[in-house]
Specification:
single chain, about 190 residues, alpha+beta, tt1808, chain A, 6-stranded mixed β-sheet, 3-stranded antiparallel β-sheet, globular, disordered N terminus
Length: about 190
């Protein structure tokens, strides 16, 4: 019986409801990822162990580079990012410019577009990450966006060029090169922890 309940709880889908932004900000803190996208409050199930392990691997690799090479700051979910459009996202991993990071620390809230964002796909978040958030990030000027596919062991890298994303898809044998993190390059398989 307990196993059935556990299995059911890990297969939860996104819940969404239309609401004004004030209702989103009035919500109690939650352990579940909660975002405000296109006028809807969206709650996702808790991430899987594989999702979090992959997030840790990617964060560690990028953080070494960011700490050594840039003045920006790397963050990870759960942390609300209030975009200029009024939407509120919680990217799995994101980079703020140095000045934005200082302002976020002072305000105790992120109120700007990240330079770079990463979303790791979960079964319930595919449409959200590949369409909704991609469009939001593009519209809000996020210069680079990675969608990491755990199942396919691949990364879709979107780079903002003249207000629109250009896509490069990479698998485990490929090398990903940062455009925001100039000089960062790593084998995709190694980055994904293969």
């Amino acid at each position: 019986m307990a196993t059935e309940v556990l299995e059911q709880s890990t297969k939860q889908q996104l819940t969404r409801r239309r609401a004004p932004i004030e209702e989103f900000w009035a919500l109690s803190e939650s352990v579940l990822p909660t975002e405000y996208l296109n006028g809807e409050i969206i709650m996702a199930p808790s991430p899987t162990v594989a999702h979090q392990a992959l997030s840790r691997n990617i964060f560690r690799a990028l953080d070494k580079f960011v700490s050594r090479e840039t003045g920006g700051a790397l963050f990870f979910s759960p942390l609300d990012v209030a975009l200029p459009s009024g939407d509120v996202v919680q990217p799995d991993i994101f980079l703020l410019a140095e000045g934005d990071a200082k302002q976020a620390t002072k305000d105790d809230r992120v109120r700007c577009s990240p330079l770079f964002a990463i979303e790791i796909l979960s079964p319930g978040s595919i449409t959200l990450d590949t369409i909704t958030k991609r469009e939001l990030y593009e519209r809000n000027g996020v210069r680079e966006y990675w969608i990491v596919d755990v199942e396919k062991r691949s990364i879709a890298q979107f780079v903002l060029r003249k207000k629109h994303y250009a896509l490069t898809e990479m698998g485990e044998g490929d090398v990903i090169r940062g455009t925001v993190l100039v000089g960062f390059e790593m084998n995709v398989g190694e980055l994904l922890g293969s």
